[in-house]
Write a structure and sequence with these properties.
The complex is a heterodimer of chains A (117) and B (116).
Chain A (H helix, E strand, L loop, with lengths): L2 E3 L4 E5 L4 E3 L2 E3 L5 E7 L5 E7 L5 E3 L5 E5 L4 E6 L8 E8 L10 E3 L3 E6 L1
Parallel strand pairs in A: 2-12
Antiparallel strand pairs in A: 1-4, 3-9, 5-6, 5-10, 7-8, 8-9, 10-11, 10-12
Chain B lengths: L4 E3 L2 E4 L5 E6 L6 E7 L5 E8 L2 E4 L8 E4 L6 E5 L8 E8 L10 E2 L3 E5 L1
Parallel strand pairs in B: 2-11
Antiparallel strand pairs in B: 1-3, 3-8, 4-5, 4-9, 5-6, 7-8, 9-10, 9-11
Classes of the chains: A mainly beta (117), B mainly beta (116).
């Protein structure tokens, strides 16, 4: 069974500082990987996804993530935090390939990012 | 093009009542997925439906929970005889085909159910 571990339930950074949110997955084969952002009382918005093209994936709002198979990681980064980045971030995986349950996402528990002025 | 619409946004029910949560997928989307988010947890898959068919309900609790996606109208997640542990945010997502993730999901804003 797949699983996702997000290290750090709460990360606090200063405005302008580097954002690093960690995600490690467990899967028998390289899965599809996703990062979602959730603003308070809102739904989930897709930030970026890895589906086996380039291992460095660029997303919206200046975020990017790198797939490292050897480390089973998919950490999310942003060079310079903005106040508007304060939200909860979820890493998720799904099965790869047709015929399987590739519609089913397994989510991590989330990391709450706060940005201090 | 409206996104995935869920209503109500907030729902309060007393223990033992029924909760009905609605989800209208994006236009042109015929696949609907329901997820539940318990406090301080990630989202967990509940059920996957196509029009008039339940494809995978492996994440649904065995009792009191049911889901449907009729030929006409929204998808409905129904919880009978609610208990305090049902308090959670329920999210719906849709896709134009089975989400092989070349496309991916679009999530609604969720229904936050509180059982008092």
């Amino acid at each position: 069974a797949q699983s996702v571990t997000q290290l750090g339930s709460h990360v606090s950074v200063s405005e302008g500082a580097l954002v690093l949110l960690r995600c490690n997955y467990s899967s028998s084969v390289p899965p599809y990987l996703f990062w979602y952002v959730q603003y308070p009382n809102q739904g989930l918005q897709l930030l970026l996804k890895y589906t086996s093209a380039a291992t460095l994936v660029k997303g919206i709002n200046g975020f990017e993530a790198e797939f490292k198979k050897s480390e089973t990681s998919f950490h999310l980064t942003k060079p310079s935090a903005h106040m508007s980045d304060a939200a909860e971030y979820f890493c998720a995986v799904s099965d790869r390939g047709s015929g399987g349950s590739n519609y089913k996402l397994t989510f991590g528990k989330g990391t709450l990012l706060t940005v201090n002025p | 093009n409206a996104g995935v619409m869920q209503n109500p946004r907030h729902l309060v029910r007393r223990r033992g009542q029924e909760a009905r949560l609605r989800c209208s997928p994006m236009k042109g989307h015929s696949h609907v997925y329901w997820y539940r988010q318990l406090p301080e947890e990630g989202l967990k898959f509940m059920v996957y439906l196509q029009k008039e068919n339940i494809i995978d309900e492996s994440g649904m609790p065995k009792e009191r929970f049911s889901a449907e996606f009729p030929k006409e109208g929204p998808s409905i997640l129904r919880i009978q005889q609610v208990v305090r542990g049902d308090s959670a945010a329920y999210f719906c997502a849709s896709s134009p085909e089975q989400a092989a993730f070349n496309y991916g999901y679009t999530f609604g804003s969720g229904t936050r159910l509180t059982v008092v």
